[in-house]
Amino acid sequence: MATTADHLRTTLDGQWREVREKVRVDLTREEFAPHFTPDLQAARATALEQMRILAESGYAANGFAAAHGGTGDVGAAVTSIEMLAMSDLSLMVKAGVQWGLFGGAIENLGTARHHAAYVKPLIDLDLLGCFAMTETGHGSDVQALETTATYDPATQEFVIDSPTPSSRKDYIGGAAQHARMAAVFAQLITAAPGEEATSRGVHCFVVPIRGEDGADLPGVTTSDCGHKGGLPGVDNGRIVFDQVRVPRENLLNKYADVAEDGTYSSPIENPNRRFFTMVGTLIRGRVTVGGAAGAAARVALSIATRYALQRRQFDKPKSDDEVLVMDYLVHQRRLLPLIAKSYALHFAQNQLVTRLHDIQTADEVDPQEQRELEARAAGLKAANTWHATRAIQECREACGGAGYLTENRLVALKADTDVFTTFEGDNHVLTQLVAKELLTSYADEVRGMSPVDWMRFAATTVSDVVKKRTAAQQIIQTILDTRQDNEEDGSLFNRGTQLNMFEDREEYLLSTAARRLQAAQKREDDPFDAFNSVQDHVLRAAEAHIDRVVLEAFVAGIDSCEDETAADLLGDLCDLYALTVIEDDKAWFMEHRHLSVERAKAVTRGVNERCRTLRPHALTLIEGFAVPESTLGVAMLGG
Ligand SMILES: Cc1cc2nc3c(=O)[nH]c(=O)nc-3n(C[C@H](O)[C@H](O)[C@H](O)COP(=O)(O)OP(=O)(O)OC[C@H]3O[C@@H](n4cnc5c(N)ncnc54)[C@H](O)[C@@H]3O)c2cc1C
Question: How far is the CA of 558 from the centre of ligand 1 (A)?
Fold first, then answer.
């Protein structure tokens, strides 16, 4: 008979539960047992060997269209890479670079000739690639990249060049050692006959960088980033191009092309919109990184909670036993809210993957839906990766000295996930992107604007901030309507009350941000100063929005649970998530008179109360994560 933990697992696993099950089984193979070595060569060789095993068992095909040699199951592709994080984050990142980023650029920015030439070999790992976007001078501001790709009509080639020291490609996964080819982002410079050559903005080119012997090709100089804060199995490196020539056909030309005579053409006229359309198609990497961070947090919480359920410290009066660490209220307060948040984010991530799959497998894409997806992916990437960083550190401390030993996995999880807050988009920059979508009510013109420009746009056009409901629309509305019928029920454990508090905070922050923007716009001469004077407020509004989206996803997740006992448990966990968010932002709620002093105290009591109710179910809750036993076999747990 299915246990409560089984029901939790089924509910959390969501639409791609079969994919998750398959990866869980595969991870029991000896080759995927968690391992750690500071020896970069050994770690890199292991990651590559593991990838070969995955390639043989058909892992990569899901991410590519059937017509190109794949199976076209986008959701399955993202889910399986996310699950790899439970075994080893170097493997997850290296697989993500090869199939998600390099493969994703070819698949989404290329056309038939690129698909025919590269997709099958890159799925099978006969072609190892890297994704060379970031430069030493520019990471977050991709439009300002300096690498040039100048078209030479005489030879019908592009000349790829790094004109300045700051145009060196930097941190590129695979560039130090294994990649033979790079998807290089560069300013495309060309001229139609009789015209002067001009830059057409950033485009992507396929550029061979190493020969079969592993040596750099002429004009290419690669170097190794060496030891990093984590991810020893990923060979991050740098690339400098000195007038490297590639055929005209190496431009990934789905959104723009250059004719033999140098004439530039694109179906998207506006250069900004073109750029954002191109990078928008690469969203999958961001979704995967957020999901993998969530998976790593679940591994850490599974380890730390199991440890807390066996570790004893200090005598209990009138008892022969020492106290189980998990029985201390403070320990419950440290771990259980993080478990609750992991559930919340997992449900939100599942919704995101479903939307990604639906949009990327649809025949036609509605631009507004695409932009909403991009904003949601940005927000959840930030939320998941920040959560992982905080949760894993707490788990490390919760395991005391044992938590600091490499054999117990937590330090590697911490080191490896640290950079997840930075790559695939720095979290603060991504949060700003969420705000942009919210404040401008998804206006199409905003897509390609710089932060200063869109702030000006928002200041002049925002009147009513549009509140967009999540997929849980109906369920949430029913909860809110029921609450309105019974208004005196303002209990903090009432879901309608919680939803209202989240919504009110978001609406207030958004509308006041819009008003401040308008005022700043009138007051300041310098548009940058106007923008900068409200930046913190705008980011808080975006964070409040993400919190609301995550809470609504939790509510929908509970609704999808088919077992009553498991659903009740999820209900208590959802209370804990909601009350913890309110408690963490208590000062704001009180400052803005959304919470009286008495109710603020009640929030703290509510968190304690839910910690107590959930304590007996701690093991069940982490069993619901279904982290494979083989990846939990750490020494301190007797593994
Ligand atoms: C291990 C690793 C692997 C990587 N792999 C790849 C890869 O395979 N391919 C690739 O192309 N890139 C890769 N990167 C690069 C990564 O994507 C960039 O580091 C990232 O985009 C951030 O850019 P940056 O380092 O230039 O930081 P910056 O953009 O310089 O950011 C520095 C700080 O400034 C803040 N900041 C920036 N802009 C604003 C703003 N408008 N408002 C407020 N604050 C701001 C940020 O929040 C951040 O804290 C990798 C990086 C690492 C570390």
Answer: 36
With a 6 A CB cut-off, is 133 part of the ligand 1 pocket?
A: yes
State in Å: Cα 138 to ligand 1 middle: 8
524 is catalytic: no
What's the one-letter identity of residue 192?
Answer: A
CA distance 43 to 277: 36
Is ligand 1 within 6 A of the CB of residue 131?
yes
Q: Where are the beta strands (DSSP E) in 105-251?
A: 129-132, 148-152, 157-161, 169-173, 181-190, 198-208, 220-224, 236-241, 244-247
What does the alpha-carbon distance between residue 328 and residue 73 come to, in Å, rounded to a whole number?
A: 46
Confidence check: pLDDT of 468 > 70: no
Contact 88, 272 (CB under 8 A): no
Among 424, 503, 506, 623, which one carries the catalytic annotation? 424
CA–centroid distance, residue 171 to ligand 1 (Å):
10
> How does residue 442 score in pLDDT terms, banded at 50, 70 and 90?
very low
pLDDT (mean) for 34-56:
95
Tell me the best of 429, 453, 528, 538 to mutate to test the pocket of ligand 1, counting ligand atoms within 8 Å of each CB and taking the most.
429
Ligand 1 atom at shortest distance from the alpha carbon of 101: 8
Domains annotated on the chain, with CATH:
4-123 (1.10.540.10), 131-269 (2.40.110.10), 284-482+490-637 (1.20.140.10)
Q: Which of 148-157, 468-477, 498-507, 548-557 has the lowest mean pLDDT?
A: 468-477
Kind of pairing between the strands at 181-190 and 129-132: parallel
pLDDT at 180: 98
Give mean pLDDT, residues 248-257: 98
Among left, alpha and beta (phi > 0; psi -120 to 50; other), residue 199 is: beta
Mean pLDDT of the chain: 93
Give percent of the chain with pLDDT exceeding 90.
82
Residue with token string 């055929």:
247
Encode pLDDT of 262-271 as tens digits.
Answer: 999 999 999 9
What is 333-357 written as a DSSP string?
HHHHHHHHHHHHHHHHHHHHHHHHH
Nearest atom, ligand 1, residue 173 CA: 8
Q: What is the pLDDT of residue 467?
A: 54
Nearest 10 degrees: CA dihedral of 508, 512, 514, 516? -170
422 Cα to the center of ligand 1, angstroms: 5
Cβ–ligand 1 contact at 422 (below 6 Å): yes
Q: Note the pLDDT of residue 469.
A: 56
Query: How does residue 466 score in pLDDT terms, banded at 50, 70 and 90?
Result: very low
Model pTM? 0.95
Which pair of tokens denotes residue 580? 């913890």
Cβ of 17 closer than 6 Å to ligand 1, yes or no, is no
